[in-house]
Amino acid sequence: MRIGVDARLMHHQPAGISRYTWHLLNALAQIDRDNEFVVFQHRKHRDPIIRQPNFRRATLYAPAHSRLEQIMLPIELLPYRLDLLHSTDFIPPLHSPTPTVITVHDLAFLHWPHFVTKDSAAYYGQIDRAVTRARRVIVPSEHTRQDLIGQLGAPADKVSVIYEAADPSFVPLPLEETRQAVCKKFGIPPSYIFTVGTIEPRKNLNGLLQAFRILKDRYSVSAETGLVIAGSKGWLYDETLETIETLGLTDCTFLLGRVSDKDLHRLYVGARCHIHPAYYEGFGLPPLEAMACGTPTIVSNVSSLPEVVNDAALLVDPRDWEEIAVALHRLLTDDDLHAELRRKGFQRASCFSWEQAARQTLEVYRAVVEASSASSNPAQSARQTPQT
């Protein structure tokens, strides 16, 4: 098979979908030496993402999320004579003869349209046609699969759940040594609550800040306990800054911006607990990463998050600030609960792997290519069909 993978977004946005794309490509390279992969990268992203004989770097000039994308992509893809194109960023070329597989990471833009910019709404507004056009759709959770079937009427047999996983390098490290190193580097207190993700309304950081204020005011936790937030600036970032100032949390809230994978790993390990209070997630990788590092986590009791963590985390209503504050207090002060969730977290995180995700993705590729070959050669397909 000659498989194309659209990885242009990795030049613009190093988190989220780009991390998914990189982990998938890396895992495919480890298990597949036979098929040919064409990795389409942005023209400014010159270094090949994967260096392996059966992986080829190619340039696409069509700008991601642009009006020109749907005009340019079909033309640019023609010379590569692909058996299949995997569009990892929701929307495939809608007018190309190349069979496509798409990954739909979530439908947050349908559930929370007021959290989406006008440009994003225009891009993701193509989702109905994308799902119709694609031969198969990959989703990261059963919740997202049911969402896709219910919201968009996708045929159930067209949608495959393939779970993501934590970075394999995210493992426990020596606690005190790691904590001292990150505290010194980032100027954060030794006791801290950690959260990571693009700073935008859907992640519910304003609700977390309200809960943190309640925690400080009503519960007996150290005055030095800090809230550490890692992640790039997103839509309405300034509102989060205003909330921090309004609540008087400037001295104990630490905005680190985007951090390297090495520092992210150490920040997970050094944290007393991790929290992911988002209103909606198609999968929710940070809680899984935290558990793999041995750090207990708190997640919202909505969308896919309970599916990901199972019984290995505390679940909270993302709209109930008091409930979030109580959960934080429990993990900050209850050593037995902390140890129990640490143990369960390791067990739960071990259920997911990128190797497994890559093997399941290859199965989807094969099914699409075989079906395409059969439909393009009906005489051969008829010969192979047993007579009754």
Please, could you describe this protein's structure?
The protein folds into 2 domains: 2-165 and 354-384, Glycogen Phosphorylase B (Rossmann fold, 3-Layer(aba) Sandwich); 175-349, Rossmann fold. Helix content is 45%, strand content 15%. The chain contains 17 helices and 13 strands. It has helices at 9-12, 17-31, 69-77, 108-111, 118-124, 127-133, 142-152, 175-186, 205-218, 237-246, 261-270, 285-292, 305-309, 321-333, 335-349, 354-376, 378-384, and strands at residues 2-6, 36-42, 55-60, 84-87, 100-103, 136-139, 159-161, 192-196, 226-230, 253-257, 273-276, 297-300, 314-316. Strand 9, helix 10 and strand 10 (253-257) form a beta-alpha-beta unit. The longest helix has 23 residues, at 354-376. The two termini are 32 Å apart.
Q: What structural class should be given to the helix and strand makeup?
A: alpha/beta
Query: Beta-sheet strand percentage?
Result: 15-25%
Using only C-alpha atoms, the radius of gyration works out to 22 Å
Question: What is the 3D form?
Answer: elongated
Order of helices and strands: EHHEEHEEHHHEHEHEHEHEHEHEHEHHHH
Mean pLDDT: 93
Largest sheet: 7 strands, parallel
Detail the poorly predicted runs: 381-388
Q: Helical element count? A: 17
Features:
single chain; 388 residues; alpha/beta; Rossmann fold; 2 domains; seven-stranded parallel β-sheet; disordered C terminus
Topology at a glance:
Elements: E1 2-6, H1 9-12, H2 17-31, E2 36-42, E3 55-60, H3 69-77, E4 84-87, E5 100-103, H4 108-111, H5 118-124, H6 127-133, E6 136-139, H7 142-152, E7 159-161, H8 175-186, E8 192-196, H9 205-218, E9 226-230, H10 237-246, E10 253-257, H11 261-270, E11 273-276, H12 285-292, E12 297-300, H13 305-309, E13 314-316, H14 321-333, H15 335-349, H16 354-376, H17 378-384
